[in-house]
Design a protein that fits this description.
The chain is an alpha/beta fold. The protein has a single domain (about 10-229), classed as Alpha-Beta Barrel (TIM Barrel). The protein is about 45% helix and about 15% strand. The protein contains 9 helices and 10 strands. It has helices spanning about 25-40, 60-75, 90-100, 120-130, 140-145, 150-160, 175-185, 195-200, 215-229, and strands at about 10-15, 20, 25, 45, 80, 105-110, 135-140, 165-170, 185-190, 205-210. An 8-stranded parallel beta barrel has the order 1-4-5-6-7-8-9-10, surrounded by 6 helices. The chain has a two-stranded antiparallel sheet with strand order 2-3. Helix 4 (about 120-130) links the parallel strand 6 (about 105-110) and strand 7. Helix 6 runs parallel beside helix 7 (about 175-185). The longest helix is centred in the first third of the chain and has 15 residues, at about 60-75. The radius of gyration is 16 Å and the shape is globular.
Length: about 230
């Protein structure tokens, strides 16, 4: 397998929750959560992923949460901002806002519900890559989007779009992950905590973790242990 392109998000990225109180974002608790992860040594945080309630946050709330987390982390940990949408123009707008806020990269889910063709997937992600130079992590989760980004399409993206640096692999298929590893130099990250170990055994470099909200140090020990052999 070819060397990955920079391994910006190798390790453990935690898809952090967005705490709420009385129907509003609880900014005090969110700040404490970011501080705690920085103290734990968490490699990166992903605000506004699905675990962070992205489907129910307003676009304004999404931008404010990303901006708040970037400011609160203040360079103490990397930020992979969840700015994906099934609307290409909306994803571009939120991604530009995340770059302005200081995010290190962006997590981009495949357009959900739309069920794009493979050409449609390519054009969506190519448009994102052209609109901003923020590193992109492609999030492939067919169980939620109802459509799979095939390895050949990911290989085409990797070849044509140098800012696409990684894939959050949540197909549940080690066969597919193996194909992606063979065809591309993308950093492969597990999108399912329970598959982190087997995925890393075939070339994965880490995980975008949910259980890391509770036990980030244990997840980092697992990932570091596998990488050390």
């Amino acid at each position: 397998m070819a060397a990955t392109r920079g391994e910006l998000f190798a390790g453990v990225t935690v898809a952090i929750i967005t705490p709420f109180k009385n129907g509003e974002v609880d900014w005090d608790e969110l700040g404490k959560l970011v501080d705690w992860h920085c103290e734990q040594g968490t490699d990166a945080l992903a605000p506004c992923g699905t675990t962070g309630e992205s489907p129910t946050l307003t676009h304004d709330e999404n931008e404010r949460v990303v901006s708040f987390v970037c400011e609160r982390a203040r360079g103490r940990t990397k930020i992979m901002a969840g700015t994906g949408s099934n609307s290409t123009s909306e994803a571009i707008r939120m991604t530009k806002a995340a770059k302005k806020a200081g995010a290190n990269g962006t997590l981009q889910v495949g357009p959900y519900y739309n069920k794009p063709t493979q050409e449609g997937y390519f054009r969506h992600f190519a448009a994102l890559a052209e609109a901003t130079d923020l590193p992109i992590v492609v999030y492939n989760i067919p169980g939620r989007t109802a459509s799979n980004i095939l390895p050949e399409t990911l290989a085409r993206m990797a070849e044509k779009c140098p800012t696409i640096v990684a894939v959050k692999e949540a197909t549940g298929s080690l066969d597919q992950a193996s194909q992606v590893a063979a065809l591309t130099d993308l950093t492969i990250l597990s999108g399912d905590d329970s598959l982190t170990l087997p995925l890393m055994s075939i070339g994965g470099k880490g995980v975008v973790s949910v259980v890391g909200n509770i036990v980030p140090r244990d997840m980092m020990a697992l990932v570091k242990g596998v990488r050390r052999g």
